[in-house]
# Entry
Amino acid sequence: MTSRRKKRQGGNATLEGALTFLPFFAMIIGIIEFSMVLMIMGTFQEDARNAARYVTTYNMSYNGTSYSSQSDLVNQMMIDGSLGFLTSKNVASYVQLNFYFPDDLTTPATAARLPHTWTDSKGQVQTIQWVNAPGNVAEVRVVAFPWNWMVPLPGFMPGKKISFGAEAVDILQGLPVGSTNPPNP
# Structure
């Protein structure tokens, strides 16, 4: 009688194992997925911070290559640090370099707004002749980088994208010794 009962219960272990394995596997994949997004966001944040710091020095060479603009230099720095997520084909779509005047941190500085005159905290009138003049703020941003989820989540079915980004700012330093004008942005 006991052996007959064991034969009938033999399929239960297989069924219970399958029902337990599927949610466990989905949970592991979900953990990997969220970890991947957090890693990419952290990488972009670190790269943007390094690029913003580098822009403040007015150095136009990076890794032995000279660049004609600070935007090209920032794009290359972001490509090099992004673990392959940003490439020369897509970097222009996601990476932005903006400059801001010290008295207006809401609207990016453009050549059309030059010369820019403003009064500092000591009551002195300041005139800025360049978009990337010393004292201006440099901002490096990764905007709307798309990510497709592997694991179906409520509201995020496979193939539905989310977007994330990163940004960093720094104040431009004084010009390097011997320089008269800031290089073009």
